[in-house]
Amino acid sequence: MTHPPRICRHCDEQIKHPQDEALVASEPCNSVGARLIYAHVEHVTLLKPHLTPLSILCRLLVGHSSQAPEPRPDIVETR
Length: 79
Ligand SMILES: [Zn+2]
What we know:
Blueprint: E1 21-29, E2 33-40, H1 51-66
Antiparallel strand pairs: 1-2
């Protein structure tokens, strides 16, 4: 069984030699479950993180930090 040509995530060129490829990530995919992402070895350090997961994480952190803290049962306010 042959695999489809591997494309570098950084330069979008086909990776022709197996010794020049590096597995850098996997992405969810409906057809096969996960798609493996490759890059040329010399381009691995030039890749930038995907912004969608970072955006979701930032929204979660902002939403979590803006929530009022729950009252602690061991602290009694005296006014
Ligand atoms: Zn490349």
